[in-house]
Amino acid sequence: MDYLEKITVDELQEILAEVDEKKPVQRILAGIAYKDGVEQQTIAERHDVHPNTVRNWLIRLERLDSEPFESVVYDDPRPGQSRELDEADHDQFIEALHDSPKEVGLDARAWTVPLAQQYLEDEFDIEYCRRHIRRLMSEAGLSWKTARPEYVKADERAQDAFRKGFKKKTDDLDDDYTIIAIDQTRQEITTDLVHAWFPEKTRPTLPVSGAWESLKLLGGVTASGDTFFLKCEDNFTADITTRLLDALQTEFGEKICVVLDNAPYFAANDVHDYVEDTPIELCHLPRGSPELNPAEGCWQKLNQRLGNQLFEELDELREAVFDALASIDPPNIYNYLCP
């Protein structure tokens, strides 16, 4: 019998990040392993339990499709457990949960279990385990889910001002300057499903993976159509940005005019301090304007080239990425920056 057909590995991974007790963790790990194709007998040996226990775990996890994860992965509370908040404090806590944490002086946009735990300790001098706090939050009518993204809308006036300012700046630069637009991307070991042509009246399927490893890239495209790509072993930081700028100078000469967005690692004070005594010119795009960045065009072509392919190893993904980038025709940056 197949289990967890309606539950994805990503959903189990997200739940795992919220679980903090041994048995629930084991159950979620068993579900992830099963979704990755591991046999129940092997899962049982990993956790030193009987195979029937693993089967019971999987049957239990099936309820995630219709029930809150707290009631599925945790056991029932032991008898005698009681709430220590009195009625008035409990009502105050519930009211706070239905407002933004900022309303009670916490520096956050949304509630988490650790944040609610901190609020209870600071406001009422009460210490509850995280499991009990989850139950209180559930009883208060809150559910654990991902917020819908609300992207920053581009300001057309800011975009027009940027185009005029960029044209004036580049017109005033020496002919020795190389104009480079840079950007960042992250390619994961999985299948990026993109539109393609399939036979009619069929429901196509493609193999995917729940692996979380990824390849981080910084890249640039110049006004003359040259490209430069740099893989990052670590997360993007201001230090990585300064190293990229140094690499760009080595590749294209000291005089470079770099177009980049306002990501924290691009706009950091350390980056501006680094370029202060150099001939490097920085042109930051307006917020919410990825469509102005020519480097985005390279990533779009890359995603299309790698789409619908499963990469199971990081080395395999890395080789495919750089092979694809070597064959991509870079966009004309002036079509983006000065249309």
TrEMBL record:
Residue ranges of domain Winged helix-turn helix in the record: 109-164
Domain Tc1-like transposase DDE: 179-318
Pfam families per record: DDE_3 (PF13358), HTH_33 (PF13592)
Domain of life, source organism: Archaea
InterPro entries to which the protein is assigned, alphabetical: Homeodomain-like_sf, RNaseH-like_sf, RNaseH_sf, Tc1-like_DDE_dom, Transpos_IS630-like, Winged_HTH_dom
SUPFAM superfamilies, alphabetized: Homeodomain-like, Ribonuclease H-like
GO molecular function: nucleic acid binding
Alphabetized NCBIfam families for the sequence: transpos_IS630
Protein's name in the database: ISHwa16-type transposase ISNamo14
